Amino acid sequence: MGYIWDHLSTTQKLRVSLFAFLLCLVVSLGDARLRRARSVSSSTEDTVETYNRYYNYGNLTRLLQSLARQYPHIANLSSVGQSVEGRELWVMRITKDPNTDSPGKPKFKYVGNMHGDETVSRQVLVYLVEDLLVKYGKEPRISELVDTTDIYIMPSMNPDGFEKSREGDCSGDNGGRNNARNKDLNRSFPDQYESRSVSPDDTPEVVAVMRWIQLKKFVLSGNLHGGTVVASYPFDDSASHQRQGLYSKSEDDSLFRYLALVYSKNHPVMRTGEPNCPDAMDETFKDGITNGAQWYDVPGGMQDYNYLYGNCLEITMELSCCKYPPASELHKEWELNRESLLAYIEKIHIGVRGYVKEAISGADLANVSIMVAGIRHNLTTGTHGEYYRLLVPGTYNITAVVPGYKSVTVNSVQVLEGKAVELNFTMSPVVSEGADSTTVTAESMTSTSVPNIPTTTTNSPNSTLVPSEENKSSPPVLPPEPQPIQPQEFRHHTYVDMELFLRKYSSEFPSITHLYSVGRSVEGRELYVMAISGNPTVHEHGEPEFKYIGNMHGNEVVGRELLLNLIEYLCRNYGTDPEVTKLVNSTRIHIMPSMNPDGYEIGTEGDVKGYKGRNNSNNFDLNRNFPDQFATITDPRQPETIAVMNWLKSSLVVNYPYDDDKKGISQYSQSPDDQIFQRVSRAYSQENPLMHKGHPCEDLYPHEYFEDGITNGAQWYNVPGGMQDWNYLNTNCFEVTIELGCVKYPMAKELPTYWEQNRRALLQFIHQVVHTGVKGTVSDSRDGTGIPNVTISVDEIDHNITTAHTGDYWRLLNPGTYSVTASAHGYQSVRTYATIPKDGVEVVDFRLTRVHSDSNGQPLKGPQPTQNPSEKELQSLIKDLSLGQGLEQLVSSTDTENSFRYRGYKELAGVLRGLTLNFPKITSLRSLGQSVEFRTIWALEISNKPGEAELSEPKIRFVAGIHGNAPVGTELLLEFAAFLCINYGKNPAITKLINETRIVIVPSVNPDGRELAVEKECTSTQGMSNAHGKDLDTDFFGNASHRVVETQPETRAMMDLILEKSYTLSVALDGGSLVATYPYDKPVQSVENEGTLKYLASVYANNHPKMHLGDTGCSNSGQMSNIPDGVMRAAERQSHMGSMKDFSMDFGHCPEITVYTGCCFFPPAEQLATLWAENKKALLSMLVEVHKGVRGVVRDKSGKPIVGAIIVLNGGVVVSSYEAANSIIIVFDMDNSIFGLPREFVVASAAASMTALVVTACIIWCVCAAKSNRQKDGFHRLRQHRDDYEDEIRLTSMGSKKSLLAHEFQDESESDEETLYANKI
Fold first, then answer.
1. What distances in angstroms separate CA 330 from CA 307, 334, 370, one per listed residue?
2. Helix, strand or coil for residue 428?
3. Catalytic annotation, residues
4. What is the pLDDT of residues 1291-1317, one digit of tens each?
5. What keywords tag this UniProt record (predicted)?
6. Is the peptide bond before 235 cis (omega within 30 degrees of 0)?
7. At what angle are helices 869-882 and 988-995 packed, to 10 degrees?
């Protein structure tokens, strides 16, 4: 090779050298490219996500740094500070051009792992970072989000705590929640209700994040946690710091709920509202969201700090039940949350956005306050003059204010769904007094996509309004006050038109409207109601409820059209008109435009005095169809009437009560609140000039005159069965009737005039009526919880109201000073004086103290039982199901697929066996005996330990089919059994009830009679009796002396079951009427404890949509109608001897109620689904009720249970209508010695010495001292709620108990059985 080189020419040598150089260069470059490609490939492989491992601090740091290096055009990694142990608080900024701070992109942040042991948040935020970076430029949605939003993601705010936590620790037992100084970071921020300092040494993480929030001016934020699955929104605490249950409402409450719903609705588990967390199976959240403080009080929380001090809207997302689940769960958690995480970020672009510029120089104006009328929470502009005001759809007045400049207000800004409206402000310096504000309309403002704003005044609608030069030296002529938006279209709305109108406004204004139906008319038209409020779907504590009802008479149409106008007016002006905004934010307004849509459809336009369409489709006057205090209303209750009666809420809907009097003549019929009714009537009439002058219809009724435009109803003319009197007497509602026009069905062209005459009155009436008087909360002094059904009475006014389920109340009163008393059974009454101002409401809160005393008024002494966690869970469940909509929500959340039909004996037996085969762990089937024709009478037990005695659990019996011709009860109980079994393990409430209750179901007592009965025979008695022709409900006699014939086999089977004496409550289902009855059936029988028995029947009736209305008369039963509350003593319905109910009372010592499910004995099978829907909630209410009252154990000093102790309750024990049974331990001081020697020794010695007299005396004495022959202990006693009882424990001989049991469930004339409390139920 050297030789060849030597012989080459110089040129060739140069060429070869050049070639070698180029070759080296190419090889070198190629190697470099190869190395770079390999490096990138290696890096990519390092960041390919497997979703099956957690990143500790070191791995997390390397991963984030690697991602930042790979995507420098859209990612920038920085630290906002360090933890106690010096770990960086990493933040990944993701946006186009991440190293510059350009205007026009709102700032968003996610913060995770604030509690170090809540780790799912940390991981999903890492996955979110990867998702945004990898898919940018590939998925349009991601690209748009990154291009238009400045996104900051902090995966871990508490890296020290994370390092301490342990995988698989679901409840945080290993620590790691707090930081390295053992401080809870989510309790360490400044709080609005208490002064606290933030220590840089103890919580450097909090200090760093606070500094970061103040610097960046974030618009929207999410704080990710773990421990359940729900989205929580501000406020997180309240001034009272009530532990839970107190809704703490922020000014942006509607917006926060909207944002929380965005996250929840996109999360498959969260949106169900049922996390089903193992440690809180009964915890539910409506729609998967909750107000923070209502859930539990969190002072010093980060989300409130963001809102109050950082201009940033933040909610908290709880992502998983297990705080630190196995890594194998991470992929699933990412899939559950990905869509929610993205959808929530996108909501940063709703509402109103824009820039604020200085008018002369065009300079950016920072720290300008952006104010929205009706929302007392302002934000300020950033360094570039930019602002982003998130708002839900609506119409708003928006003002820009900054010292030294004239404020500018833009009225009627329309915010729609979707992208934000752009609204820019130009502000002029203040150069003279008086020229400090400018008001313009939305049309005169610039709406552009760039921040460059013109600084000259033009008439163009696309220019910014700037005051003219002349006005800079002299005060300008201020524009007129902005006027509210009036309804634009006036026409008569048919039912279809009205329905579309309501749906339209419900859709356009979802944050303040809720459209629902309370029932249907005869012809099946919905009775729509529009609720309008800042939180329209629920009753908020302390917020009054108001209702308007129109078109009760179908041909009186003005009210219908005015209420539709009012809906439009309230929606269009919310957020812009102060009066409307205040009313909507402070009142829940319910508007029913038409109570009689059927009658309206046949009315005729132009009808002046006619009756066509006045009544409903059954030709009944709905305003003569309500139960009446003086007259008996014999007309059948109409579906429209029933629907409105069921619509029982605290509310208000011009004549005033009473509408009739005892004599039935037209004369003044004064109610106890007559003066108040006069005032509220004047509140309306004085705003209507035509009404107020008293001669409204001079042409039609020239002699008719009403002073001040108001009248007492009965003085005008007598109206028995009217709605306004029923409201006043049966609810907390004060209602007056407003007659709106002389012509019943005016021409459409006249409707604008009616609106103009009434619009002020409609608004003023709400304001005057709802926001005057006295209001407040009645709470328990022990734990601060609100007390429902407390009686609020006012001296010298004989009409009381009661508190709502959270303890709040409203009482209308005229200005003056009153003595007001709050009283509830089981509490000491509190009386105070309230002075009602001329304009406004007086707030009076009551704190009641429970009565815990003996007969001498001293506190009860003795050992008190301790509660285990299971008992606490049960108490919480019973309270939740007893208050508010708890039971209703349980019913709606536990629908099961079913196909209803009647089943004969063989199929019934098959169904019961099928339940035991499919649900063997919770069911047990046994035979009680056989019928005359040898059909088995089955009893199905449902419990967590069927067949085993559970002394601590109450036992309830459901029985049906004692009359074979009334098989509805049988089918209801079969469906009830299937319902319970199917929902066991799925629904936490059902599961808990079954675990804590022994349920015995006897679906058919008379199977022989059932086989003879005929479907669709509503009045036939065929099959009523058994095969011997005996009515079994007349065959239950405990004493042989009272029995004429031999006991029927069916009766004997049931008697044996009843005599087990282990039942707390029994419910029997029958047919032929619609009423609940309580003992006794005997014609003459005093009932000392009638209040308790009546209460139990009323619980069933009140949970039945029709029964409680009292329209219990049926043509086939011959009984009277209008039974108060749908409850009556059985003997008043049809007295007879030998009933199962009476036997259960006298010999089984168990109260039994009989429920008649419908007028028809054997209705068509098609009606079974409806009957099940009507009775499902009521049946469940019995499972709840059996856990109330008093329970406990009786022991001697050695702890030995005492059997046969008789419990007499006369005072000192508080029994609540919404709490589980009080548990009482009674220790009885028994003398266990005889002559100073042990009892056993004396007895044995006496026997040995054969001294019969001493033996007999000792044995009798011993028996009298401790009546105990079997090892069962305790008692469970149902009592009427909110009564006080004194515990008296007596041990008696068999022969001495009659006098004591005369005050209990005991019939002196018949019973020779054991004492009342032989068992613990």
1. 31, 6, 42
2. coil
3. 318, 739
4. 332 222 222 222 333 333 333 333 333
5. Carboxypeptidase, Hydrolase, Protease
6. yes
7. 120
